[in-house]
Amino acid sequence: MMFANTSTFSNTLAESYRDEVCLAAIQCKDAPTHAVQGTVYFSTIVNSEKFEWALVPLESRDVKLYASPPGVTHAVCAENRDVLCAGEGSYKGGKLTINNRSGHYKPSCDSLEPAKKYWIAAGFLPENIIVKKHSHELVHELVYDGFFG
Question: What is the pTM of this model?
């Protein structure tokens, strides 16, 4: 599926990427750390209840949906590339829930609607997709402006 000119989000923690790749390899043991939509392992990850996901634009103007087991960072999931959106997902009882919660990329809430279209293209019915928006700005205000301090 092609993408229109849309803003992308860069890895804000790029300096730790190499360490994260090593940790992900240890965590996943003999399994891959991430998979692209259309592969058996992608389906296995998504059907395992909880997962991380990233929507990655490629140079060909194509877009790929990636998934990783929980605990593998979004940077590893997206191979340290810019993303159109990234977040957490869960699949339970035929319902797919996605959000934009990623500390590495901090994608906007607005990036979720276009991302939903790619999940539909991946075979999920629109009525079975639940989108939960995560405000990175609100979290920043609560944590750094003294609410929890």
Answer: 0.86
